[in-house]
Amino acid sequence: MYRSIAEWFELAAERGDTLAEAVARRETRDSGMEPAEIRERILATLDVMRKAIDEGLSSDEESPTRMTGGRARRLLARDQSLLGSGFRELLARAIATLEVNARMGLIVAAPTAGAAGVLPSVLLTMAELRGWSDDQLVDGMLVAGGVGGVIAHRASIAGAGGGCQAETGSAAAMAAAAVTFIEGGTPEQVGQAIALTVQGMLGLICDPVAGLVEIPCAYRNATAAVHALAAAEMALAGLDFPIPVDEVIDVMGEVGRKMDVRYRETALGGLAATPTGQRIAERAGMPELVELQRRGGAKGEDAARLGPS
User: Which residues pair with residue 206 across a beta bridge?
Assistant: First the structure.
């Protein structure tokens, strides 16, 4: 994939490609797959995303820990919504995907399992509201993939590498770029959408309760989906961010590297280390994790060993 947003945009302009076409061209070069095959695979990925949402919204089944399950369905069933039914559906779909993940169901890591609800909830909700075709959704997925590739190269898409900013933050940036592109935004506006997203999620910690990808992950996916649409809305209106997008991504990497290990997916700090978080971990059969929390953390090797399931 591309090493910077600037490189991607410049090469697309030189060849007369759209941003989606430029990603497909690079993927063909790297994988050997023909563009038609790439698009078919993305369509299959979108089908998995749809099925995960449907499964999550139709079930009241709780996860083994009982931390999640049925919340998405409850949200969707609410008679009123502060900003209309589309807003409620956006939130519910993000949570539904993470609830399926917590029950070991099939989801699409986009870019990770912990952030799997953001991209599908944004794209599929917007497709319904705006009447997007499957071809447009595939283009959006290609653009999202281009963004994820750059972030993975310049910063991190893993909670263990950079906190939740690297997971839900990256997913939100991918979604914001996809929406902006599909809605006819210029490459400059797509870049602004990415920058506006990432700057607002810098420093977000990863503190999974009991070391499991359930809480606060499900709810952070929902709020990250909203963040993505806010950034796309501002970018499409011509609002700019004064720091270039690649520099904003570089800051995400810097913040992630300097973040205390307790806040990078180890479940040794934050919400995971609260008294209630410790009780949940004990019920989940993780007394060793609780002991480390009570001792105030762990050495790096211990933290890595006790990372999320």
Answer: 264
- Residue 207, domain extent: 5-263
Give residue-wise pLDDT tens across range 111-139: 999 999 999 999 999 999 999 999 999 99
Beta bridge partners of 264: 206
> Hunting for tokens 């956006």 — which residue is that?
90
Q: What are phi and psi of 206, to 5 degrees?
A: -115, 110
Angle among Cα 247, 141, 151 to the nearest 5 degrees reads 25
Residue 184 pLDDT greater than 80, yes or no: yes
**Both structure tokens of 233:** 């809305």
138 and 274 in one domain? no
> Do 155 and 286 belong together in one domain?
no
Token pair listed for 303: 């933290």
Number of structural domains, the chain?
Answer: 2
Confidence of residue 298 (pLDDT cuts 50, 70, 90): very low
